[in-house]
Fold:
Amino acid sequence: MEHALVTGGAGFIGSHLVDRLLGEGFRVTVVDNFDPFYNPAIKRNNIKLHLNNDNYQLIEASVCSLNDMRTQLSNKYDVIVHLVAKAGVRPSIQDPVGYQEVNVQGTQNLLELAKELGVKQFIFASSSSVYGINPNEPWHEDNHVLLPISPYASTKVSGELLGHVYSHLYGIRFIALRFFTVYGPRQRPDLAIHKFARLILKGEPIPIYGDGSSRRDYTYIDDIIRGVYSAMGYRSTHYEVINLGNNQTVGLMEMVQALEEVLGEKARLEFLPMQPGDVSRTYADVSKAKSLLGYEPSTDFKTGLKYFVEWLIDKDLCY
Ligand SMILES: NC(=O)c1ccc[n+]([C@@H]2O[C@H](COP(=O)([O-])OP(=O)(O)OC[C@H]3O[C@@H](n4cnc5c(N)ncnc54)[C@H](O)[C@@H]3O)[C@@H](O)[C@H]2O)c1
Structure:
């Protein structure tokens, strides 16, 4: 039985990955500290079913303490999927040092652990934000001009580079997956789709930063999980950086309209200045993911939104 160590396995993407891995018969160890960036009760809820599975182990610890992890993690894991991060662009401007600590030092700690435990496969959650204000769309991994514009984005660039060092020196296969705005059931409440949907349902105005012309490549969670799972089994080369997006960009106002349709409610808009650190567009070229991982995103935006809203209205909105 293969054994996966998943950091951040109580979060949005992590809990979906654990669903898949347990379903595939993996043994799964999760490290998560139930960070209060958003209500930890949501994360407890995400893992409720996992706790009943004999192949699942939860370790409540911070990736910032290498010693804690050394004490609590001693197995020979087949693969590490490192999803822990302080996420979010705007809050990283308020707390750049905290982001550095968790996202860079934490990643280095996991890589040290991989080295010490002899783990040979390491998947890293990177982000579309590393491209920053790169004008060459759609963004392709071979375009090495990264122009990050937030502390969060720069921590993800650092993680990718640290991975190259450990891959080169210690033969750890390192795959950085650049996720493009992930959405679906359990989406983080700070992300626009989730935040807007709740405000619309409460009849409150939604903040539109800038003139509404920004665009995002939204990627449905099941497509992301298929990409991550595929990367876990990738063996051909020792270091890769791969976009996982949807290869379609949706305008902010199109997103709002689609939400209105799916929710059956009209949104009230409040226009506010563009936020520093936010990029105006994201757009993924996914040809590399297709050729290396057989990745084929298959959930169109409207369908994905319906699944998200079905999940949301089933939940307690006081989250
Ligand atoms: N959701 C997206 O759209 C998106 C896009 C690009 C990249 N990413 C990256 O994907 C990963 C997962 O994102 P998510 O949306 O699921 O976020 P999330 O916040 O839901 O999950 C992250 C998990 O990490 C845990 N965590 C935070 N700090 C920790 C620490 N010091 N020690 C141990 N655990 C800690 C949190 O408690 C949480 O459960 C992150 O690395 C994020 O940067 C996400």
Q: What stands out?
A: The chain has eleven helices and 13 strands. The chain has a mean pLDDT of 96. Residues 3-313 form a domain with the Rossmann fold fold (CATH 3.40.50.720).
